[in-house]
Fold these 2 entries.
Entry 1:
Amino acid sequence: MLQRIKHLWHILRRLTGDDAYDIYLKHHLEFHDSSLDAPAALSRKEFFKLWQDSKWKGIKRCC
Amino acid sequence: MHKNIRTIIWLCVVTLGVAAICAIALNRGESISALWFIAAAACVYAIAYRFYAAWIAATVLTIDETRATPAERLENGRDFIPTNKWVVFGHHFAAIAGPGPLVGPTLAAQFGYLPGTLWILIGAVLGGAVQDMVTLFFSTRRDARSLGQMARDEIGPIGGAAALIGTFLIMIILIAVLGLVVVNAMKHSPWATSTVAATIPIAMLVGFYMRNFRPGRVLEASILGVILLLLAVVGGGWINHNENLRGLFDHDGLSLAWAIIAYGFAAAVMPVWLLLAPRDYLSTFVKLGTVTLLAVAILILQPHIHMPALTQFTDGTGPIFGGKLFPFVFITIACGAISGFHALIASGTTPKLLANERDIRMIGYGAMLLESFVAIMAMIAATVLEPGVFFAINSPAGVVGKEAVDAIAKINSWGFAVTLDQMNQLAKDMGENSLFARTGGAPSLAVGMASIFGNAFGKSMLALWYHFAIMFEAIFILTTLDAGTRVGRFMLQDMLGNIWPKIGRTSWMPSVIFTSGLVVAGWGYFLYIGVIDPNGGVNILWPLFGIANQMLAAIALCVATGILVKSGKLKYAWITGLPLAWLVIVTSTAAWQKIFSDDVRVGFFAAANDLATKLAAGTLPPEKAAVAPHLIFNQQLDAYLTMFFVVVLWIVIFDTARVTLRYLTGKPLLPLTEVAHEPSRLVEDWVRD
């Protein structure tokens, strides 16, 4: 039961973009943190700004 | 499961579906239960999804589960992210389902419940859902390219330009007509106006919360916002009863139109995080919540439909919009049956999240079926009203007369019973001054929803439910308005950037203000005309929007058909070719009638000439004579605009035919731009975390 609720909560967070930063961090650690001169990960605030701005560039809603 | 049992279950579904459709189609009694509509829809969708969509996916598109999608190959942790299919489904559905499927069926209910319902079901399973699914598939195979890019790459530069211009013009007309719907819902209603006004500061508060106070905590901020929205609905009722405050929010259509125009400009210039993004979160939550609630309420209450299956207005004399059943029901209900706009989401946006091609059927086809179901619910909500009440709310003053007594007499003369007391009581129950001539579909839908909610969850709060429904419609209409103005601005900057590069820079403030101003002026003009038009404006704008949207759908289907032919799948090209042919017939006929019909309520030129003759003869009352020159000019402009749409449509069709012919005769073609196969490395449980 608890597992179910956890799973639903996870889906809800993913659906709303609540966990976008966590995903980004995970991606960053996995692909960009291997070399020493890699750029540091963005802070939560910086990332959110970029994420929100890029999300609204194209057509996102229709009739 | 045993094969025989499965066969028996599907036979039951088919039988129930056929029975439900027969019940709907053949019923000539006083009323019919809405459950038949739900049953018919559920069975049709289930059969179409299980058999037709599965066949298209497996045989026509040959979906390949082992192939890496753009989300996997181009993953960047930001916009390209392989995502759980339910999450993608949610995003895709929230993006495609706007106010269209709510407004269209409500307006089309003037023909009776049957034509609209059948078109919503058939159009969705054979047209709209197929369009969405194949567009999603082709874009996924092409690095998530947009419809315009695919048109240019696969058909030629003309197709690409047509898609671009078509999209831009649809946006302008869509925003104008949606603005008109909101204006008509707020006209002289302090409760509705104050609630809608309150959504602006609430959205800003939410925007500030997730940008600065708790960055990225989208869920917290949205919950806070939804609670505030509900309080705003209650607060609106308090304002409505407060003699000092209600005057502040009691306005006529024209002032509200100017307010919306000013708002649209501000929203397009302001940064997205402040207004647009938070408003979008709120509207998505409210939208999904309300649609679910409506479905539950319909199931609990099982309301009865009072509208006849067919009304006498199939002959083209309908009060809400002029024109015969064919072709106008197919133009009026665009979203919910087939909508070209969806192709813009299905290409470009959604493929960036798609983890596996196998999810394409559920997301492309399934989400459209759900939108079609929303349209069915809107049809139910519109037709549970007594027909007399429905026509009293939706008929413009220019048709039934300005005075309530005249309107009642006129509607009674059509054979629909309604009394003045009944309308007054209804308005009082809903907390409104008057419900006569509240065109645009939103108020009648809200009355229908309020009566369903009220009967299912307690009748004492009818006025609250009504204004909740108005807020629900207004909030995502305004989201579409903001987002559309912004996208229009980007497109315009992109186009003008070819002439003067500096104007193409999206962050250069003078260019932002200039291009936003142009876009707002574009839709603001149509909104203004719609408000001053005594026939309600919806009569002109909605068909124009329908024609434009179906034209875009036809372009998307042309691109899909062209790609199918080029991929050597000519024998399957009918899956998009058939809906394409139907849309071309419908759109061309509707456009022809809108341009050349002698009926002043259908033909643009006929209306312009009629008005000009009356103006010259001096038979118009002074207030009508004052606006007549504007209306005449506008009718002519609309006629040329319609002509333009049809010409663009036929150019793209000839271009696609040219590509097909070259393929058949073995002449060289633009190469297919499908990216090469790359095996997927994603393991099942890794993606579906």
Entry 2:
Amino acid sequence: MHQKTLVELGAGLRQGEYSSEELTRVCLDRVSALDKQLNSFITLTEELALQAARDADARIRSGEAGPLTGIPYAHKDIFCTRGVRTSCGSHMLDNFIAPYDATVTQQLNAAGAVMIGKTNMDEFAMGSSNETSFYGPVTNPWDSETVPGGSSGGSAAAVAARLVPVSTGTDTGGSIRQPAALCGITGLKPTYGRVSRYGMIAFASSLDQAGPFARTAEDAALMLGAMAGFDLRDSTSVERAVDDYTGGLNESLQGLKIGLPTQFFGAGLDSAVAAAIELALDEYRKLGAVITEISLPNSQLAVPTYYVVAPAECSSNLSRFDGVRFGYRAEHPADLEDLYKRSRGEGFGAEVKRRIMIGTYALSAGYYDAYYLKAQQARRLIREDFMRAFEQVDVIMGPTAPSAAFRLGEKADDPVTMYLSDIYTIAVNLAGLPGMSIPAGFAADMPVGLQLIGNYFEEARLLNAAHRYQQVTDWHARCPQGYE
Amino acid sequence: MAIEGFEVEKIAHLARLGIDPDDVPEYARNLSDILAFVEQLNSVDTRGVDPLAHPLDAIQRLRPDSVTEADERDNFQQNAPLTEAGLYLVPQVIE
């Protein structure tokens, strides 16, 4: 049963072949059996899950089931879940029981989806390998010596290992697409403002966006349909109707104009990854797409721009963790300043502290113009590159990550090298565009992700392009050994 | 841009971040590396370019100034490390 997609499971549930309770137990049992190795979950919510599954079964029996009703999912531990610990992968929030639900949580609950637990992640979503988590690293189901990517590493590994059919993630600089690529699954980062950020613990508010992980584009489309929508409680939520993400999945790609940014195929790209991407593009040619080279001349500015903008916003957002209202509090503070400093110093890990300090520096008196203002100007240049490209092409494609999964510890001591793992994904966040990663072959037996980038609110077009590719290839159906 | 140890301590103080004195040299090295990397931005001419704060150039929505949330103080304070009579406790500030 665990090999079935969300679409297949939904059909089985509605036809009464099995109940959501049975399906949920299968997932919970798989977690018990397999997650010691993966460490993809921080918290398992067994009792709540079984109750939600029984509620879903009642709803299915009454004929009121939607596509997600009764489907088990794993929820990144960055989304607030009322009454359930929401740690954000940090010692700071190890004892935090969310007092309310995130909008995404509410919407998935309302759709009847069954949360089985909260997944491991880089601390406060700051990382590209899942190694900065307070709860220890997640390992990649394809090779336990390698990383699953990050920051949504637990959610990606759980889907790749067939512990759950779908999961949630968030993507600030690649945190959905890069782990999807490294774990060989499908992940989608929507347009900025498409999915509500309410109740999603903030890292860099002008970049953060939630989206789904699944094994197929069709499943991702159904998840996105449930997650997306305008929300008054998120001040940057976009007031716009949600598109039908499944209706156009099968549309022909005849004449689809695909642009390849020359900058995504230069030095730094692993040759085996490049070869897999070339083969994937050949499939698109066979499907009728027309492929042309394009230029994103400012793309080399993306990572440096990001490492000003994201830390600046992070230093501001994380100032709320002060040891007073919630979260970790240092013992026996000498005075208020000591309480702040030790609670934050003991509660945050090294990467979070580095980013808070970079952001504090970039925003401090005398440096604001040189760093933050300059980065916000560069950000506009990056966005304009994409806007010019979308005058010529419908979809931009390239590799999601410069290499397949790297080894645990390989980049952990060198922040700048780690930051370059997101070299192809970060510009998309800076511009606020939707992006996807889909499985597109292997490099030395590890999965390779093909990235698809669309114009604003063109998630349906990306899903269509991904779905058609998945109809003629089977990379997305490959299962890591030991998890069949 | 090389960051010296004393600057790390100053930045950490501004961020109210306690750091172990033994870790200061490593933070100095990491922060210097990151800032050196970021300085690539200086190679680009941004004269006359408007800073971009929101990718869709959205305007902040306004809403009526009315109460919409119920009082959930007790619920929220369950997560507080130390409270008394509905108040958050901190070390004494005024002698």
